[in-house]
Every structure is written in C-alpha cells, then in structure tokens.
C-alpha cells in the first residue's frame, strides 16, 4: 500500500475517535433499563409463534428519539446506503475486467477508489454496528435464546452473535482487499504499462465475482435482513445488489461529469459516448431493480405464507404503505419514464436532479428495510437520520477525494484506454469546405 | 432487357475508403440534398451525423406499442377475471394489478417489439421488392469493399450534369454513373 498522507491520517483519527466515542459513550448511557424490559417483551412475542408476527409488532412501546435503538437504526440505515456505493463500485470494477471492456477504462480509477473505501473505512464504520447489536439495540436475536424461537433455531448457524461478529468484519475486509488488490495492479500498470497487470486483474475478477456475490448477499442478510430474522427471501441479496449498482451508476455519472469539466483530470479522456453509456446502464438498472423488487414482492404475495408475508404486512401499516408507494413510483416509474428518451441521458438539467432523487430513493429504500422494525406504527424521521446519512457520506466523500488525488486520475497505460478515448466528433453542418 | 430510354433513378458515386465516403457524406449534407443515401459494407461510426440524419422516430412506435400492450394486458385480465367470469383463485382478489402485472409486462415487451419492427418497416417503406440499384453490377460491391452514395433524381436539387460534377469534383468520387429506373 502507498504511504498514508498526513491528511488521511487526520481523517482516520477523526473517524476512529467518532466511532470509538459513539460506541463507548452510547453503550454506557442509562437507556439499558428500558432495553432489558423490551428484551423480555420480545421473548414473549417470539414464544407466541410466527403466526402472530403482525399482531406482535404493535406491542412495541414508542421509541424515544434519544434512545440507543433510534441511534443504532439510523446509523445502520446510513451505513447500508454508503455500503451500497462501495459494493456497487466494486461490482463495476470487476465487471469492467470480466467483460474486458474498453469504454469504461478511463473512468475505472473512480470506481476502484470508491471500492477501496471498504477497507479500512467501511470496516471501521461497521464496528459501532457490532457493538449496537451486542448491547441489544439492533438485532433482536442477539438477546433471544434459539431454544425459545424456532425461526431462530433453524438459522442459528448464521444468526448467532459470534458468527455475526466474525463474518461482518471479515467479509468487509476481504471485499476491501479485493478492491485494493485490483487497484494496486492498475496503479502498477501506470508505471510500466505491462499488459500482464490487466490479465491478472481479469483472473482475480473471475474468481472475485463469485466471492462478491456471496459476500454481499451474506453482508446484507446479516446486517439488514436479519433485523427480522424470521423472514425468508432468496432475492434479498440481489435486491440489495440491484439498488446498490443503480445508486453507484448515477453517482459515477455525476462524479465523472464533474471530473471531466475543463481543467479537471478526466477532461481529455471522457466523452459524451461514455456519459451516454453510463446513462443507459443506469436506466437498465432502474428496470432491473424494479424487476427484482417486484419479483420478491410478487412471489411472497402469491405464496401467501405467513413467515414471509409478515415482512410486507408490517410495511403496509400506517405511513409505511406510502413509503412503499414512494419506492414503487420514485425508485422505478418516474426515473423509468424520464429516462426512456435517448437524449435525456446527456441532458444535465434533467440528470442532475434525477441523480439527487436517486440518492434520496436509495436512502428511502434502506429506511424501508430497517426502520419498520423500530417504528412499526409508521415512518418516523429523527435528527439522527440526516446526521448519519449526510455525515457518513461527507466523511467518505472526503476520504475518497484525498485517496483519489494521490494516484493518476485514470489508468494512464491501460491497454484499452485508447478504445475509451476514441470518439467521433462530426463537424456540424456548414463546417466542411463544401463550396 | 428493354432498350427504351427510361427516366434516371439517380447518380451512383463509388468510393474506395470509409474516410472518403464520410467526407463526401458531409459535403452532400452541406450541399442541401435530401433524397440520397449511403451504402456501406459495414456500419461507419458517426455516419448519422455526417449525413445530418435526425434521430429516428421509431422509438415512438415502440412506446405506443408498449403502452398499448400494458393496458391491453391489464384490461384483458380485468375483463376476464373480474367482469366476464369472476372466479376466486387461491383466495386472491378477483382483480389486482399485482397478478396482472407479469402478463401485462410480457404484453408490453411483445407489442413494443412489434411496434419497433413494424414501425421500422413503415418508416423505411419496407418491404420493397424492387430498387433500381439492384440491377447495377457495380453496386453489388457495396456488400464487399466499396462504398456508395446515391443521390436520387427526385431530389429538388438534382440535375444530372451539375450533380455529376459535384460528386466528381467536390466529393472526389472514384466513379459516378447514372442509374436508370
């Protein structure tokens, strides 16, 4: 790894202090009394069996804004949002190598750098989640004896505190190391231009994509899906993946557009054709996400098994129903209809608001997954939501930028770079000497 | 073959490289011709702009097809299951967009594809069984290693001699010949 700059060190220190402070400070707050009561209550609920999920949900007491539970859930929502950008970037990097792509060579350094945030930053940011879980503020099953809960008992191989504590950091670290290894080879190629770095990356990507699929699925199962450990969905991993790549593509679109403005590093290697291609991919993932989420919903709706339907039944209570509708229309229909037109994908006046909207929709989607556990009666926004969402995003954006500037802005000697920068600027009517 | 003099179909100009025809296409575009086309053995990137073609309107046929398909699917299922022959299946509602969605979605894709295909046929005036260019021996090389521009006689700016001069001198065509109807 490269030497770590002073600036990065200071950011590392800040992040470390914030994380450690949050963990220590919040763990000793005297909110534990209420939590102990809640745990006993939860155990009673579970004893009533899976069929009564819907009814049991309403048994929760209203959660105070300053309770650890509120903070933990807001933190997890923000974390899942940021994690989606990192895993989405890792996927685009892997996909670039797997397809031996040319067009994306000049923007690959951006996705490589975002994916490299996984280690160590996303790992550090995951530590509070583990502490929240252990202190009984996040995943209910940390405090449930599997012998009392059949749904937990059959899943205890995965859903037990030790597995969680080991798997979450290990998976994030391995995904991060995968991202860093591919970037390290790409940077090595900047120096000598040897093609073997590309073939090494391709081979690693071929194995890495399998690990990526398992790793991301396991991570979102453990971190988010297991908030309601009774739930079954084989589509949950790909559902999180689809939303992640969707959000990453529009982020990459806006980022590369900004980086290719006159005087910025990608000015001479990024063209309208790549912008169009990113827009098209974003459009494709708009449809893919809808397809996946609809499939998950439809299969559960059609089969009508209580151990699956309770997840959506809970999300049709109170204002959660309207949050679901917002996702249906805001995450799919509106972007879909806007992006249908070919030329829109190069129209900044449209794409910038669409990008901001997409970020909001991904956050709403994460909220829809996490928050109904805490607020079954309906959507309840607290100060913590914007604090963690914006705070974590800004810290990570800052870390990205200091990291990105340390290396060349695009793979200088990538064998495919020429394919990316070949473009066809046709003179406008009247420009040729036709007279 | 009939020896009667027939009216001209247009002037066929032959080029030897993609770069030559690209340049020539821009000159034809700038000269204001409207009834002309480019024939090449393979697609040439940027040719649409070089010819000054507008974006293809075929997308509208696709959209109308998809829109029709979606609502046909929904309406059909509503009519059959809720109205014409109400039948409870699996305790589900008689009609809900949920279970009608997969079929409507398939109908959207099917009719979008039809819209695209037949819209393209319509816009290109296909199928067309005869084109005077088919008779031209030289034109057969347009599927091999030659590049052609044909400016048709119906073009308001067409004049046999003036256009021939334009193609030879301004566009540097290798060969220009008159194609008869």
In the sheet with the most strands of chain B, the strands line up as 2-3-1-4
Largest interface: A-B, 19 and 22 residues
Beta-strand content of chain A:
under 5%
Q: How much of the polypeptide of chain B forms β-strand, as a percent range?
A: 5-15%
| Element-level helix/strand string of chain A | HHHHHHHHHHHHHHHH
Query: Structural class given helices, strands, pairing of chain A?
Result: mainly alpha
Q: Using DSSP, what is the number of strands of chain A? A: 0
Q: Which class best fits the helix and strand makeup of chain B?
A: alpha+beta
Spatial extent as radius of gyration of chain B: 25 Å
Assembly form of the protein? heterodimer
Q: Which range best describes the helical content of chain A: under 10%, 10-25%, 25-40%, 40-55%, 55-70% or over 70%?
A: 55-70%
If helices are DSSP runs of H or I spanning 4 or more residues, what is the number of helices of chain A?
A: 16
How many domains would you count in the coordinates of chain B?
Answer: 2
Number of E-type strands of chain B = 4
User: Whole-number average pLDDT of chain B?
Assistant: 91
- Biggest β-sheet of chain B: count, sense, barrel? 4 strands, antiparallel
N- to C-terminal distance of chain B? 12 Å
Q: Which sequence of SSEs, written as H and E, runs from N to C of chain B?
A: EHEHHHEHE
State the shape of chain A: globular
Rounded radius of gyration of chain A (Å): 23 Å
Describe this protein's structure.
The complex is a heterodimer of chains A (435) and B (181). Chain A has 16 helices and no strands. Chain A has 435 residues and is mainly α. In chain A, helix 4 (68-98) runs antiparallel to helix 5, helix 6 packs antiparallel against helix 8 (161-192) and helix 8 runs antiparallel to helix 9. Chain A is globular and about 70 Å long. Residues 23-59 of chain A have low confidence and may be disordered. Chain B has a 4-stranded antiparallel β-sheet. The mean pLDDT of chain B is 91. Chain A binds chain B through residues 294, 297-298, 301-302, 304, 340-343, 424-427, 429-432, 434, and chain B through 23, 26-27, 29-31, 45-46, 49-50, 52, 55, 59, 63, 90-92, 98-99, 101-102, 170.
